[in-house]
Amino acid sequence: MMTLVINVPGLLLDFYSQKSRKKYEELEGYILSEKVEDKKINEFLNDLDSTKLKILEDAYSIEELSYRSRIFVFSYLNKYYIQRALIQFNLDSFITDVISLNASIPCSQKDLVNKIISILHGKNWIFLTHSKIQANIFKENGAKAILISEEDGNNFKNLIQFIDFTSSHKIDNTLYVSKGCK
Three-state DSSP class for 17? Predict the structure, then answer.
C-alpha cells in the first residue's frame, strides 16, 4: 500500500484571504531557507488566520485515493486547526493523520525530512506539494516528491490528474480471468 503525505494549505485546503496565503508562503520560505529566527516565526504564526481555511475543488477526490493508500496531511500550522478544517469539510475519514511540525523550533532541511520519516516509520512514502522549492528540498534529501502545480512543465496540474494517473497504473495483470469472461 502506498503512503502519501499531502502538503496543506496548498493542495486540499487553502486560506480564504490572499494576505494569509502570502504570509504562509513567506513562513515556508523562512523555514526552508534555514534562516529561522524564533521571533520572526512566532510573528508569522500569530498573524496568520489559520482558523479560516477553505476547501479546494478537487479535495473530495482523495476519497478514491484513500482506498489504495494511506494519506497523511503535512503542515507547519497547528495540528488542531488542520484537523478541525478536515472535520468541518468531512475529509477526516480519508486522512490517516495530520503531521504538524512545530515551526517555532528551527531544524535543517534534512531534519525536516527525517522527522517525517520517523513519524511514518520508513522511507516508502511520496510527498505531494504545490511548492517547487519544497519539492526540490525533499528530493535533495532522499525523499520522493511530486510537484502538483498549474505551472508549465509539470506532470500534474491538479490532484485529480495525479489520482487518475495512479488509478490507471494500479491494474494487476496477474489476476485470474475465467475462460467464460474472454
Answer: coil
Rounded to the nearest angstrom, the gap between the alpha carbon of residue 154 and the centroid of all alpha carbons in its chain is 17
Instruction: Give the model confidence (pLDDT) of 80-116 as tens digits.
Output: 888 888 888 899 999 999 988 765 565 677 777 888 8
Residue 109: CB atoms within 10 Å: 17
Give the predicted TM-score (pTM) of the model. 0.81
Q: Which residues contact 147 (CB under 8 A, 6 or more apart)?
A: 129, 130, 131, 132, 135, 154, 155, 156
Helix, strand, coil fractions of the chain, as percent rounded to 5: 45, 20, 40
Own/partner long-range contacts of 116-125 (Cβ < 8 Å, ≥24 apart): 116/5, 116/74, 116/143, 117/143, 119/72, 120/3, 120/5, 120/72, 124/3, 125/2, 125/3, 125/4, 125/5, 125/72
**Model confidence at 58: pLDDT above 50:** yes
> Please, are residues 53 and 16 in contact by the beta-carbon 8 Å criterion?
yes
Q: Is the pLDDT of residue 153 over 60?
A: yes
Three-state DSSP state, 26: helix
